């Protein structure tokens, strides 16, 4: 089996579902702390699937992680577990340091203890894949080339700083102890099961509810958008054939200003769920004060991943965003289940 951490979150949950739909035999041990963004409903289709073993737990729990590794004879670890929202990291950075830095340290130590005891081909074939973000590289100007794996780390938020620290730990455990690691740094993901604090699901759900569509500043912050199922396929490929100790940037080749993304979503909703009064959803756009330290542009150069491992995304932004909007229209029961009172209070605080 493989061990997936954070496998009830957005990207981790999609990866678990994607992995088991593409595998007939190799199962998953899924450990997730089930904080606000972890949602077992995402994994409801696996309730009776013996290939999926779910454990509620913390990656910082050394003894628990080590026992799972041994019990299930894990041959690879894919680490998604992280606090991942920039806005939340600004309001409460402590949780990000605890999970992303301290938690990653304890996880690495448990994995190292397990790997050290492996013999022969089991030891040679073992992998630890650490999933990270393009935000560790900082911000780009409109004319800068996209981030490559050679860009220096220049994190600008508590979130990105904590992820940068975790990346450094993973690298150090490889160079110091020989742990067979791989690291991926991805651009902004979107798609099904995305927790509705992030831009795309927030806009979809607010639009349908007749609420304002909050845009930070002038809305010209540029991001490279990656459909989550493309990200899952990239991770599978890196796990399969990546060179030990290497970093691979994963991007969608889809640079879009936030305002353009919002207008695109509004246009799709106008087509598939027109408003009763005949008005368009873009009329709900509202500009709010920009957040502190907001990076102006991210862009990923994923050439290395395509050149060395033959991977490239299957979806364009246009095809991926239409699939995403349609998923939310068809799965409103899922979204209603995650919209707790505490979440609504947080959104009100953040965007009012």
In sequence order, what are the helices and strands, one letter per element? EHEEHEHHHEHEEHEEHEEHEHHHH
Mean pLDDT: 93
Assign the CATH class of the domain at 2-192 and 226-254 and 297-315.
Alpha Beta
Q: What value does the Rg take, in angstroms?
A: 20 Å
Poorly predicted regions: none
Structural class: alpha/beta
CATH topology of the domain at 2-192 and 226-254 and 297-315: Rossmann fold
**How many strands appear in the DSSP assignment?**
12
Q: What is this entry, summarized?
A:
This protein is α/β, with parallel strands linked by helices.
Q: How would you describe this structure to a colleague?
A:
This protein is an alpha/beta fold and 352 residues long. The protein has a domain at 2-192 and 226-254 and 297-315: Rossmann fold (3-Layer(aba) Sandwich), CATH 3.40.50.720. It is built from 13 helices and twelve strands. The chain has helices at residues 10-22, 62-71, 86-91, 93-116, 120-125, 158-177, 199-208, 228-241, 258-272, 303-309, 317-330, 332-338, 341-351; strands spanning 2-5, 28-32, 52-56, 76-79, 127-133, 181-186, 188-190, 213-216, 222-227, 247-250, 255-257, 285-288. It has a seven-stranded parallel sheet with strand order 3-2-1-4-5-6-10, sandwiched between helices. The protein has a three-stranded mixed sheet with strand order 7-9-11. β1, α1 (10-22) and β2 (28-32) form a beta-alpha-beta unit. The protein is globular, with a radius of gyration of 20 Å.
